């Protein structure tokens, strides 16, 4: 059974998963175009860090960063290659959206990369729509930004 819950990003298996995410992204983009949160950022009070597990195995991660203005940003969304297409991404999105609703957040933004067509399709199926680049993504030719009103 798939379980998604708040966790520390410092668990050994979670650190391994985050490294897989970094390796995956750095295989697609130059380092200067990879906009990630590091471990210390993931532990800040305004961040909810979620891990999806099945039978105890970590299959995916997602973080939501409260921008303290009624909006939040979805970050560090990653699902292992073996778990893609099995509903793990949808479950992570559901968890971060519920996290946002419980905190009065009404808008979630995200940035992904143009090469990640499967991720873009997942976000579109989840109700996210393209928007102009925002914040640190302005001027990044690899960025593709989206948002959803809750």
Structure in a nutshell:
The protein is an alpha+beta fold. The protein is about 30% helix and about 35% strand. The chain has a 7-stranded mixed sheet with strand order 1-2-3-4-5-7-6, with helices on both faces.
Order of helices and strands: EHHEEEHEHEE
Q: Enter the CATH topology name.
A: Aminopeptidase
Query: Judging by the overall fold, what is the CATH architecture?
Result: 3-Layer(aba) Sandwich
Tell me the CATH superfamily: Gcn5-related N-acetyltransferase (GNAT)
Organism: Agreia pratensis
Protein name: Putative acetyltransferase
GO molecular function, one term: acyltransferase activity, transferring groups other than amino-acyl groups
Keywords: Acyltransferase, Transferase
Description:
With 150 residues, the protein is α+β, with helices and mostly antiparallel strands. It has a single domain (2-109), classed as Aminopeptidase (3-Layer(aba) Sandwich). It is 29% helix and 33% strand. It has four helices and seven strands; from the N terminus they run βααβββαβαββ. The protein has a seven-stranded mixed beta sheet, with helices on both faces. A hairpin with a 4-residue loop joins strand 3 (57-66) and strand 4 (71-79). The longest helix is centred in the first third of the chain and has 15 residues, at 12-26. It is globular and about 40 Å long. It starts with a strand and ends with a strand. The relative contact order is 0.16.
């Amino acid at each position: 059974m798939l379980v998604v819950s708040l966790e520390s990003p410092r668990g050994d298996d979670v650190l391994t998963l985050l490294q897989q995410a970094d390796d995956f992204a750095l295989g697609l983009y130059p380092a200067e175009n990879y906009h990630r949160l590091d471990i210390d950022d993931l532990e800040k009070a305004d961040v909810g860090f979620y891990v999806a597990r099945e039978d105890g195995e970590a299959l995916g991660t997602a973080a939501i960063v409260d921008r303290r203005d009624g909006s939040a940003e979805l970050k560090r969304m990653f699902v292992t290659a073996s778990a893609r297409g099995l509903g793990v991404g949808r479950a992570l999105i559901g968890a971060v959206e519920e996290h946002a609703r419980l905190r009065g957040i009404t808008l979630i933004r995200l940035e992904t990369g143009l090469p990640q067509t499967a991720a873009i399709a997942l976000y579109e199926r989840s109700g996210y729509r393209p928007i102009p680049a925002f914040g640190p993504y302005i001027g990044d030719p690899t960025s593709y930004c989206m948002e959803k009103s809750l």
